[in-house]
Amino acid sequence: MTSTLQSGDEKKVREELAAIYRLLAHFRLTDLIYTHVSARIPGRPGRFLINRYGALFHEICVSDLVEVDETGHAVDSDALVNPAGFNIHSAIHAARPEVRFVIHTHSRDGAAVSCQKQGLLPLSQQALMFYDRIGYHGYEGFALTLPERARLIADIGQNKGLVLRNHGLLVVGRTAAEAFNRIYTLERACQIQIAAQSGGAELLYPEKEIMELTGNISNPEEPADWEELAWNSALRLIENDMPDYRQ
């Protein structure tokens, strides 16, 4: 691959990452400055992009993204990087070479489900899209210690999502479209679960074979066309109101 192509690929990744931040803000899946999304940099092993610590998600532009090396230091920048963000994201990127994007949230409903002993229940179509494909990681504090990285890696395994107990949610994706669809769907599954439980009525579960079928259909070997369609439609939500994310 030529350097020109690498530069073009990196520009696209930067724009996609900034767009994810804006979309999380649009859907109110933020927690002030305390969560993070990262993207692997094409052609530079061990390097990834993450948000400048201190920026709100609705403010984030391409210029707010910080390149981070294997040690957690910002490359050619004096920008601050959330140390917990580096610890979590660097562990996932190192262990899962096929993953290009990692999204971590502290949403109200996601955190609420993470506090429930049974975790994500196979109640809704959205939850079934994660059936048998989500891991659980016990709460160890602010995720600042290096030994926790190995446990994070073991707990997510080859799954596409991870519930961080008493903390929040995390998803991985091979493309921006895949990662965004996954966090949107997982968040919606948690919202539905909390709403269904709050009604006080007996909960209805699909048959196990339907759970398995839905999970299998929702997890193709290659990124799905419908994820790209949904991603492009989501981008239109911010293109009209917040096109400055590319700056």
Automatic annotation (TrEMBL):
Transmembrane segments: none annotated. One of its GO terms (molecular function) is actin filament binding. Signal peptide: none annotated. GO terms for cellular component: cytoskeleton. Gene3D superfamilies: Class II aldolase/adducin N-terminal domain. InterPro entries: Aldolase-II_Adducin_sf, Aldolase_II/adducin_N, Aldolase_II/adducin_N_sf. Residues 15-194 form the Class II aldolase/adducin N-terminal domain. Pfam families: Aldolase_II. Belongs to the aldolase class II family. NCBIfam families: PRK07044.1. This is Aldolase. It comes from Acetobacter senegalensis.
